[in-house]
């Protein structure tokens, strides 16, 4: 049964990735507003309802990724004696170090799309806030430091991340993992 469950989850992950890959391709080629969910379903060779099962809204086709939960787990797993910024840097290096060149290129394309479509910027900002709150809670739990102190630190770190995402969208040659690590080091 475990092998069957594993295969089922693998098939779901592949279907989800294919839907998102085709959606991003169509958004690049035709524009976000001009592309319908039906077109995405056809390109991914799935039913229209299958797209919505994996991505409840059209915006989710762009915004959704699996990075945050992996990052949160990595941050929680850092040695307890690491100061917050060092823990953030180590978790980022671990997660971003697992990205292939194709993963980074797809991330860049998603970032450019998010920044160019107002509806996507709004949804992405909400997601960014949720991520920042979760990171703040993890760091507060790890350190036992006062919440206002951790919020200030997290706000500064996320300001750096946002600035680098904007720069990366303009300059795809920017080595994002290296730039993030160097910029976060300045907070240490």
Automatic annotation (TrEMBL):
SUPFAM superfamilies reported in the protein's UniProt record = Homeodomain-like
> Where in the sequence is the signal peptide annotated?
none
Q: Which domain of life is it from?
A: Bacteria
Q: Which UniProt keywords apply?
A: DNA-binding, Transcription, Transcription regulation
Q: Which residues bind DNA?
A: 36-55
Q: Which InterPro entries match?
A: DNA-bd_HTH_TetR-type_CS, Homeodomain-like_sf, HTH-type_TetR-like_transc_reg, HTH_TetR, MftR_C
The record lists the membrane-crossing segments as none
Can you name one GO molecular function term for this protein? Answer: transcription cis-regulatory region binding
Q: Which Pfam families match?
A: TetR_C_14, TetR_N
Q: Which residues form the HTH tetR-type domain?
A: 13-73
* Protein name in UniProt: TetR family transcriptional regulator
What is the organism field in this record? Actinomadura syzygii
The uppermost taxa in this organism's lineage are:
Bacteria, Bacillati, Actinomycetota, Actinomycetes, Streptosporangiales
């Amino acid at each position: 049964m475990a092998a069957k469950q594993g295969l089922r989850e693998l098939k779901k992950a592949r279907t989800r990735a294919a839907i998102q890959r085709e959606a991003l391709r169509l958004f690049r080629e035709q524009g976000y507003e001009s592309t319908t969910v039906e077109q995405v379903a056809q390109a991914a060779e799935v039913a229209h309802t299958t797209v919505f099962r994996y991505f409840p809204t059209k915006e989710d086709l762009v915004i959704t990724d699996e990075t945050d939960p992996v990052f949160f787990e990595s941050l929680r797993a850092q040695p307890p004696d690491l100061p917050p910024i060092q823990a953030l840097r180590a978790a980022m290096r671990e997660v971003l170090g697992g990205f292939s060149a194709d993963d980074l290129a797809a991330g860049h394309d998603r970032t450019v799309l998010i920044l160019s479509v107002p509806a996507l910027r709004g949804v992405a900002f909400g997601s960014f806030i949720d991520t920042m709150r979760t990171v703040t809670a993890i760091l507060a739990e790890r350190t036992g430091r006062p919440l206002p102190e951790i919020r200030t630190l997290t706000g500064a770190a996320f300001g750096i991340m946002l600035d680098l995402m904007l720069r990366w969208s303009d300059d795809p040659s920017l080595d994002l993992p290296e730039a993030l690590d160097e910029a976060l080091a300045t907070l240490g």
